[in-house]
Request: fold
Amino acid sequence: MPESEESRAPVLGVLDPAAVSFVIPAKKINEGHDVAAFLQSKAYGDIMTLLLQLNRAMFPSRAHAAPRDGDIQIWELGTSNITFSDPIRYLQDLLHELINILAEAPPDTGPRRFGNVAFRKWYSIVEERSFDLLQRHLPKGIPPEAMIEISSYFLGSFGSAQRLDYGSGHELSFLAFIGCIWKLGCFPASSTPGEEERGIVLGVIQPYFELIRRLIKTYTLEPAGSHGVWGLDDHSFLPYIFGSAQYGPPIAPSDQTPTEGALSTAPDPGDVAKQHAVQRERRRNLYFGAIGFIYDVKKGPFWEHSPMLYDISGVKGGWGKINKGMIKMYNAEVLSKFPVVQHFRFGTMFSWDRDPDAPLPPATVHASSQPVKEGIGGSSMNDKVTARGPPPSRAEGTQVPWASSAIAAPPTMVGTAAPWQRAPIGTGAESGMRPTRFSQPRTKMRDPMDVHASSRVGD
Reply:
């Protein structure tokens, strides 16, 4: 895959449409063992490349190796330092039109136990108009035959009309939708590293998050394949990746993507448990925007309804370390989980073909625990909140969920453990820690931070 000359970071390649035969994307992941094939596919490599490309662009920028006064640019929501290209403005208009369709499908007022059935009407309207919507709002120059692939990822981005739910698999479909447009060469090249990528995150992906939150609140969409209280978030994951990058240490074009440190003016990660800080920061940061939505829809102590995010807030090492951990966790908990990726479809632009540079995935507890029948997923009966008690102390150390990919199903809780320091082997008694669901022997997993190396996933 190509790399930018300035940063030598991987960049998603552009296809020659004349040399490509587009096909209707098809389901390939039918059983748990198919996930291993997916992790060796060209689609997986392209997804990770695009994710890391967008992620890097969101770190604060500095033009010189040594910081100078006024040299640092930060990329807050609503910043005036970014000029959106025409393709980004077209996509903004598309999302705005999807919001307008909400008025044509008001929520049903009848009794219901789960999601509002009016979502099916909203979705059917979007599906019926999808060709016209895409034709009017996609960037110019997209060949008509590519629409069969683009529309598949587009329609997969807003939740399931059948199950009345939304989750990170639908979010992944939107990432692929953006990737299709990139691969077709519709986003203009920029002389400033990361400029168009920042525009995509702040001008397209963030408005997409806002649309999704409107859909969730309007139609009370259920979490799709949720881990319950032991998931990072009921519905989304990407805001935590891009938002933690916004608070990372400033980088020059030639710098490596940071794995620790933070912007000097960044809030403390622990501020996620302070509502006044969340309300202040959610207006300018994607991470806190997602946290703010949790406060909008959930009641009770933050540490109780969002224990994993609470544990992450105790990490020492700054937002750079949180960002690196979030990417590892995305690889383990989204891209490597059958219930999430089973619905992803593969065509020409995101191909099921094996990536010749991908090694065989190592045997791990995480990989071997995949279900063998399609459709297994959803919340576990074990995913329940224990009796209310005081917030767990972080004095005993924290463990974050991305230190290992093999996160087992949660046993009965005895306190909480922060998610990404490496867990001690055994029950935790060797280190004086309380036993937790993370204190299990685990096998390391491929590190997605180096997708362009010969071994794309290795710790």
The chain has a mean pLDDT of 81. The CA atoms of residues 57 and 194 lie 5 Å apart. The two ends are 21 Å apart (CA to CA).
